[in-house]
Request: fold
Amino acid sequence: MALDFSSCTFLGPALPAPFVKLDLEGELRKAELLPKTTGAEGRELEEGWDAYRRKLRELVARGGSVRVFNHVIEPLVRQLGYDALEPSDPVSTRLEPKEGENGGSILRTADGKPKLRAWATSFEEDLDAPAQRGAAYRYSHLRIAQRVLLASNERVGLLTNGVQVRILISDPARPDSEVIIPIDPDWRRSRSVPDSFLLLLALCRPEGVKAIPDLVDKARLKQATVTKELRVQARQAVELFVQQVLDDPQNQAALASIENKQQLARQLWHEGLVTIYRLLFILKGEASDDPARSFSFASTSLWRNTYSPSVA
Reply:
């Protein structure tokens, strides 16, 4: 049965929606990153999940960052295949070149490579809000973790507030990405191993950390193919739109009075492109799960049921 990642939220360019839906599971299986769910290994996975879920269920009320770390991150060390967990010194970043910023904790293998950096905050703390009162968004837990990963030349990290786990994917050449996995209710209430937990094990184990650059590159190439196909479809849409305008009987008199046919063709093509790109812009704003990239009015009933192009 195909894995279901619908409970996860994928933000950023690293793992675009078409790749996640159609190709991600296949690429993970091809790279042998997904843990086996049958046989002796499957039973071991179930036992590990039961123990981990008990830890998560104990984290039901208030707790500081240490308590959240001990219940969410620390039990994952062995399950992910790491041998040691140690605190990190502050890391010098672009915004804090002297004092450095919170480096979190580091999960290491016996040989020291690769490693996984992880952060935990107080229970239910907003990961996107400034960590200190009066600070700007760039000083949120999320942005600090992303800067540390970039400065450390590391591609993957974990960030949690006890309510959700975020897999952070750092890319020096493109905007940062993240996979948001809800702990409550998905993980706490699931007796069987959730598919989102299998995804975390696949991406954050040592082999997964090594494979992330190749996986992201495959997703980029797949997205380039999708973009190329969309451009062809957009061109066909413009051509059909222009042809419909030219063939409409009500427009024949107006078209006959125009002497410069070449200028008319350019104008119709331009207007067709503008219409298509406006529609694409609106649809993208409707579809985005990121509040910073979506239209606030797109969630209203008036827009969804009347003006939205998706109901046309």
Summary: The longest helix spans residues 206-247. The chain has a mean pLDDT of 88.
